[in-house]
Description:
Layout: E1 4-10, E2 13-27, E3 30-34, E4 41-45, E5 48-54, E6 59-64, E7 67-72, E8 75-79, E9 83-85, H1 91-106, H2 112-131
Parallel strand pairs: 1-8
Antiparallel strand pairs: 1-2, 2-3, 2-5, 4-7, 5-6, 6-9, 7-8
Helix pairs in contact: 1-2
Amino acid sequence: MAQLRVEVVAAEGIAWEGDALSVIARTSEGDIGIMPNHEPLLATLSPCAAEILTVDGNREVVAVDGGFISVADNRVSVLSPMARVAAEIDLKAAEHELAAAEKRLNEGEIDEQTRHHYLRAHAQLKAARMAHGH
């Protein structure tokens, strides 16, 4: 059976790599699902909780802070300034971070940096909740 070779690379190095059956991520155009033999693709990622279904049936969730996804010849590369495996994200800290970002938005800070902070915090919280079964 065909499979994908997946690498999630952040500024700090490889966050996750392995063989997978599928990858789901959010691009600037919407959610995308990648399966073996997918056509070549290069897309801009939005901050999201990317899901990877491994060949052994496990689901890995990785919070990414935007970046790019590249697909060619059953290889999927996710390149992001920040990427964290969901199991390593502290749920309480992620909730606190999202609350702080929401507070800034509610106080009228609508600049691009604040908006991006909110989206990054939301992606990390979603990933953490998925990893902890919430």
